[in-house]
Specification:
Shape: globular
Oligomer: single chain
Radius of gyration: 21 Å
Mean pLDDT: 89
Strand order of the largest sheet: 3-2-1-4-5-6-7
């Protein structure tokens, strides 16, 4: 198959969710298919990584979109019905160059990443198309607006939620839409009366995030990871630090909370204290997990499956997660992961784990088995491959794993 990936971000280095997904899917699918990529580049320093991507893509087309142009796009789109997120990535050059790619390389199927990029492929004719969403984006904006306390910012975010909800109807123009969790799938089906929605979870590099045996004697280090310039992550870091962690310190005064991730904003940097460590970018997140007792994911905005949940689980680290992140992985609460719906449940779950080494071991090892069996990139890419065969009217691939039925 000749498969065109239409991505919103240059997928290398794979340090964030959207980059990780495209890079790892391409790494697996390139073994059996010819892959093509068109994406934006906003930092010219990223050109140095082209050789890494050429290992997996037969052709790469980059469209330079400086941030100032994206800002102008948003300002001029204030009175448009399109969401700011869509206006941000508007480019006539991108559309023209994508059409040239389609014309010149006999493309069999198109994979479109994110609602933002649907503006380029929703009207493509005669080529099967998949729209791959990280989550139900309208749900993301709905949850985000509820947390905002600034009046004018809240109004702006409510407006964006309304625009996104309306714009999401574009999913009906694709042969199939993919989301990360059953929660997202149900929401989109109900909101837009649309049936052709399937699940494609995030995956895990089980060679990077692997531990022969985690050290469960460690009971003085809690970790939270993510790109800190992303609102759901910075919000979660502040929430845990101010609302939950002080109560944990009362029982475990020596425990440290590590906030690990690149580009922490000022509000996260200001959390730094004797017991709260803000690391910024680290060379190896796997090493940070290895030295931790518990991983937490107190995320309050978003949906889908979260790498900050899957990665530590793959290494045998017990995880306490909010429902955002928990819903998408199919793990059993109390056996493979701990679900905490509110502040008090987070406090209770974390303190119980810190108190009992055998409890940490049981949750950690069960979680590891669940993730490594269900969320390897090999398994996820085979699922996507079957979706491509389905929309192209071909027999499904029956390779390394038994795939879920395409419905």
């Amino acid at each position: 198959m000749n498969i065109l990936f239409v991505a919103n971000r240059f997928p290398y280095p794979p340090h964030r969710g959207d980059k990780l997904k495209i890079f790892n899917l391409a790494k697996q699918l390139s073994r059996r298919h010819n892959l093509y990529l068109i994406t934006f580049i906003q930092d010219k320093n990223d050109y140095q990584y082209m050789d890494e991507l050429r290992k997996y893509f037969s052709k790469i087309d980059l469209v330079y979109l400086p941030q100032i142009q994206s800002v102008i796009n948003c300002i001029t789109g204030v009175f448009s019905s399109k969401p700011f997120q869509v206006s941000y990535f508007k480019s006539r050059e991108f559309e023209e160059r994508m059409n040239d790619l389609i014309s010149n390389y006999n493309i069999d199927a198109i994979h479109t990443q994110h609602l933002r990029m649907s503006q380029y492929t929703s009207e493509v004719k005669d080529i099967p198309t998949i729209l791959d969403l990280p989550d139900a984006y309208s749900l993301y904006w709905k949850r985000r607006s509820k947390l905002c306390c600034n009046y004018f910012k809240k109004k702006l975010e409510l407006l964006e939620h309304k625009k996104v909800l309306e714009y999401e109807r574009v999913i009906k123009k694709f042969d199939m839409t993919l989301v990360c969790s059953s929660e997202d799938k149900t929401l989109l089906k109900n909101d837009h009366d649309y049936e052709s929605i399937n699940i494609l979870p995030n995956g895990i590099d089980t060679t990077t995030f692997y531990s022969e045996s985690h050290d469960y004697k460690i009971n003085d280090r809690i970790i939270f990871t993510g790109n800190m310039d992303y609102f759901p992550n910075s919000d979660a870091a502040v929430y845990f630090s101010k609302e939950i962690f002080p109560e944990i310190l009362k029982k475990f005064p020596d425990v440290k909370f590590y906030i690990v991730g690149q580009k922490p904003p000022q509000k996260v940097k200001e959390l730094q204290s004797e017991n709260i460590i803000v690391t910024g970018f680290v060379d190896s997140i796997a090493d940070e997990y290895k030295n931790s007792s518990i991983a937490v994911s107190p995320v309050r905005v978003g949906a889908g499956t979260l790498n900050k949940v899957l990665e530590p689980m793959a290494m045998g680290v017990p995880v306490v997660s909010s429902s955002i992140g928990f819903e998408g992985i199919g793990a059993a609460h109390g056996n493979e992961i701990l679900l905490a719906e509110n502040k008090n449940e987070f406090i209770e779950s974390v303190t119980n784990l810190l108190s009992d080494q055998n409890y940490r071991r049981r949750i950690g090892e069960n979680g590891k088995n669940h993730v490594t069996q269900n969320f390897s990139w090999e398994r996820v890419s085979d699922t996507l491959e079957n979706y491509f065969y389905s929309i192209c009217g071909q027999d499904q691939y029956t390779g390394r794993f038994a795939m879920q039925k395409v419905v």
